[in-house]
Each structure stands twice: as C-alpha cells, then as structure tokens.
Amino acid sequence: MKQSKMLIPTLREMPSDAQVISHALLVRAGYVRQVSAGIYAYLPLANRVIEKFKSIMREEFDAIGAVELLAPALLTADLWKESGRYDTYGADLYKLKNRDSSDFILGPTHEETMTALVRNEITSYKKLPLNIYQIQPKYRDEKRPRYGLLRGREFIMKDGYSFHANYESLDETYLDYKHAYEAIFTRAGLEFKGIIGDGGAMGGKDSQEFMAITPDRTDLEKWLILDKSIADISEIPASVISDIQNELKNWLIAGEDTIAYSDGSDYAANLEMASTEFVKPTVYTEQIELTKVATPNAKTIDEVSAFLDVPAEQTIKTLLYIADGEPVVILLRGDDELNEVKLTNHLGADFLEPASEADALKIFGATFGSLGPVGLLDTVKIIADRLVETVTNATVGANEDGFHYQNANLARDYQVAEFVDLRTAKEGETAPDGGGKLKFARGIEIGHIFKLGTRYSESMGANVLDENGKAKPIIMGSYGIGVSRMLSAILEQFARINVEKTFKGDYKFSWSMNFPKGLAPYDVHVIPVNVKDEVATALSSEIVATLTSKGLQVLEDDRNERAGVKFADSDLIGLPVRVTVGKKAADRIVEVKIRATGDTLEVNVDDLAETLSILSK
C-alpha cells in the first residue's frame, strides 16, 4: 500500500488533552481522531490492528465451537424492562424514543437480546448447549469519558453468550473460554493476569477478569530503544536520563483497576474482590469494664485515636448504609476501609448507598462521628468484618454526639448478626491461600467471563423442556473482550522511547509505537529517501512486490517529503521493520532497522526476504 493513498494525519507534538501515553500516541501517530467526547473514529492504521485482533479471536473461538452472529445495537427497551435492568442499570444507559414514543436503548451489552433470541427459537434441552458471540460497537453514556479508548461512550466489544441445560455444561464452556482468552491475549503479546472479578451490573456470580498489566515506569531498560551509536544505557548522560524519567512521570499510569496478586502463589484478584488470610485468634484477653468518655470535636478515627491515645486498630468504626431501601450497620476495625463491592455482593443488593445524617439520627440518635453498636435495637441488622472479632476492649462511638465508649466487647456490650470479609485488602498482607504476600499493580481490563446462571432466563421466561418433559430455565454464561481498548492496552505495554546520538554528539529522545508481531498494521515500512531518484523508486517497487509475494504486508512511503519527515512519521507509526532505500540503491543495498531492538544492518535486496524471514523467528 502506498502511503500517499492513506489517511495518516500525524502530529509534530503530543496532543495537549491526553493524560496517558497510549492516547497521546494513537492521536499523534494518526491512528484515531476524536469525533466528540468519548467517541472516536478508527483511522486506517487503527482499523487494520483491530481487524488483525478480530482474526485472532475468531480462530480461537472457532476452536471452542463458538459461532459468530450480529445483533442490532438499537434495542427495544421492553427486553430490559423484562430483566429489570432498564431501571437499575443507571445513568450510563442511553435511552431514546422513536417517532411512536416507544422506548429504545443503545446496547451497552446484549444479555437480554440473546436470551430473547434463544427463548423464541429453542424449547428442548436437546438443542443445547449453544455458544454464540458477536463483535460490534457498544454504547455507555460515561459521565466523564477519559484516557482515550480506555473510557469512552462508544467502543468496540466482543460479547459472547452460552446457553446450557445443566451447570456441568456451563462449567465446561466457561473453562473453554478461559483457555481461549489466555490464548488470544498471549498471541497478542500482552502481559496479563486472570483474576477473580466482580460481576457488577452483569448479574454474574462466578467471574474472572483478564487484566493487562501496566508496566513499571522505573525500569528504564524496558522502556528505551537505543540507537546503533549507543552501546549501552550507561553511556547516556545523567541529565538526559533525568529528562527521560521526568517524561515518563508526565503520563498517568493507565489502568482503572488495582490488581492484588500473591508473590508466592497463583492468587490474583481485583482489589474490589481481593481477600487476605484470616486466622481467628485463640488467645483470651481479659475484658475491662465499659466506660463512657467525652471526645469533644473528635469525629474521625484519627482524631479519636489521638485524643484517647489508642491505636486505630483498637477502635471500631460504625457505618450506616441503605441497601435496597433497608438500613444496615457495618462494623470495621478502625484502620480498615469498607469495600463496597464486597458488601453489595454479600447483601445481593441492587442499590447500595451511604445513609444520610437524618437516617443516622433516626437510628442511632447521634450524628456521624459518634455512631456505635452498643445499645442498638435488635431490629437493626449489624454486619461486621471478620477482623472486628479480633478486637477486645475496643473504642466505639457512644451514640451521643461528643462521646465514645472504651472497652466495648462483643457479646457482652453489642451483638453482630454475621461476620464476613468486608474490608479492602492491603499491600503486604498475606494472601488468602497463605502462599505469599499481596503485591499491587495497576491493570487495564481487557476481558471478563461470567457464570450468569439463570439470572436472565428466569426473569425473561427462557425455558427448555428437560429429559423428563419438565420446563426449566436455561443456564447462561457471558464472555466479553474490549476490542477497541486493546489498542490502548497494547501501547501502554509496548510504547517505547527512542534515544539517539546526533552528529554533534548530543542526545535526543522521542516516543514511538512498537507493536508486537502479528498486530502491527503492516509488517514492513519501505522508505525511498528521494522519490525523484528513479533508481531508488524502482528498487522500492521491486522490494514491495517481492515482500508482498512472500506474504508480508508492506507500506511504502512514496510521498514527496523530506527524509526527516518520513523517518519521524515512520517512528510514530511503529511498524516492526523499516527498509530504507537511500544512497546505495544503485548497488542494491538497503538499510534494515528492527524497531523492537533498534538494531540496523545493510542488506542486499536479493537477500532481503530471506533476512527478514530469519529476523522474524
């Protein structure tokens, strides 16, 4: 393909509104352009990457018997009203009416649509299991779209759905998808982890997220590609290294989630779901008499701890939430933070929100900062984190503004309905399997698989007759991959800083893309330095023809531009191999540059195809 025929609008400078490097490079290198907030056009280069990734997915899904179809993106709201999600999904749902005032939505996901299709077509267990998927744009009205393709209002997603007569069949397909996702992300060249995930608005119970790990910005050798004139990073002056480090710090670390993983086992989970090892104490501590003390102007745990000179872990914080309209009291050790996802999942609540001060006054007779479990009516449900059970002679709110109790003890002074894991795990704590310590990393969600069970089939009446002729709800699974955000995930891991030494002996550096093999929009970038040189242009055409015949995809920069412009654009575009046809064209000698390493070598055109074949192994 001739570059003069392509739409590749590169920019000389980084876009000022970009906060993460993937967004900046995708815009600067002419891969995407924003049409409106959170909505992007995928220009030819980006589209080619996406299509290559789709091919990888289709090959792996074919292998597990998944069949591709295409459902509409404009959906009747009636199906979502059947499932109950029309009212519970939230403000992210695009709602609209047609000319007849009927309610429609733009699909953010397609559980209801696929359930309805199967409900209307399949009535017997003999036609199950069924495994279908699609790749299409999805729509979510994000309040604050940001980070380019990572958080948008329109995005491309692969969503798959499986339908089963029994849970054993669902387990098999769920495992098939897990292995398929691992194969897909491995072929894409990503560093990723499969972690315990939260089903969220999808309604799933068992789920696993696949997270692309955001690389460590302190490992310079991982980020730098050195010019052939620089033998080692130690040659680069300290002032230049400092400038590079500052450049890395200029960009936010992408990733909407924190991953907690064990340094001594395979345990990994989204921080929202991460747990820690819990050992119930067996040592008895003598209980001291309950005492009420004044704590004027001390409302937070830190203020109370300082005023009474007690450690935060010796206090118990009391929180009040409203879950589906009902109050629930939560107890946590003072040095812990509530994990609302864990609480929501435990309660099975559709709506969970912190209570108002008016609610607190009604239930406790006090305002926030003085709430406690002592003396609460039996009608109020109290749930405590497991670590609360380890605290004896605790400091708690006295349910009177400006007062606290000291030496409050479980059973004697207050009651708890149940103990569950409600706290947010902390880095350095022991993993729940006891196999190591928790470490934290930022990650970008690229895939998610769910065991939905009968969440949608029951609410929408999707049943099949079993072997005994009895109607039973279909059992479902749901499987998603963020296709467009894969572009950003790849670049967050594969963007590199090129460091060069100029003829004057100065050092300069610049960002460039560095796509993994198999996903780059083209395999080779052929650059005739001077398009007015007939020998060079003829040799370039010969190279393109030869490499194309060998199955390589080639982009030829046939533009009448200065060499510097061509090389700068080539670095931005980031194709794996650059072939420069320059002063030695008459001798059939070209320069080959390998982007991933920065290595260059001169090659006779007659040996070029074989050389590239060897280098690609």
Automatic annotation (TrEMBL):
Record's comment describing the protein's domains: Consists of three domains: the N-terminal catalytic domain, the editing domain and the C-terminal anticodon-binding domain.
Enzyme Commission number(s) of this protein: 6.1.1.15
UniProt protein name: Proline--tRNA ligase
Pfam family, one: tRNA_edit
Residue intervals of the Aminoacyl-transfer RNA synthetases class-II family profile domain: 48-516
PANTHER family: MITOCHONDRIAL RIBOSOME PROTEIN L39/PROLYL-TRNA LIGASE FAMILY MEMBER, PROLINE--TRNA LIGASE
Keyword Protein biosynthesis: yes
Subcellular location, principal: cytoplasm
Subunit relationships: Homodimer.
Biological process annotations from GO: prolyl-tRNA aminoacylation
Localization: Cytoplasm
Keywords assigned by UniProt, alphabetized: Aminoacyl-tRNA synthetase, ATP-binding, Cytoplasm, Ligase, Nucleotide-binding, Protein biosynthesis
CDD domains tied to this protein: ProRS-INS, ProRS_anticodon_short
Any one of the GO CC terms: cytosol
